[in-house]
Design brief:
Elements (H helix, E strand, L loop, with lengths): L2 H28 L6 H29 L1
């Protein structure tokens, strides 16, 4: 991957993290129907993993700059 591709992939993963968090976690908390703990846990985990993966790609970029 080129540096630009890594930057774009990291941005995509950050955005994906925000979308998953908003739909699965926040949406579950404000929903009118019953609270679903499984969706909350899986959504939070997927949000964290996509954010972590974006951080990993950003870290690779920073290590090459040094």
């Amino acid at each position: 991957m080129t540096l630009r591709q890594r930057e774009n992939a990291a941005k995509y993963l950050y955005d994906l993290s925000k979308i998953v968090f908003a739909t699965a976690v926040v949406g579950n908390l404000i929903a009118n129907k019953s609270f679903d703990m499984l969706v909350l846990i899986i959504g939070g985990g997927m949000s964290y993993l996509s954010f972590w993966w974006g951080q990993l790609l950003d870290g690779v970029k920073e290590r090459r700059d040094e």
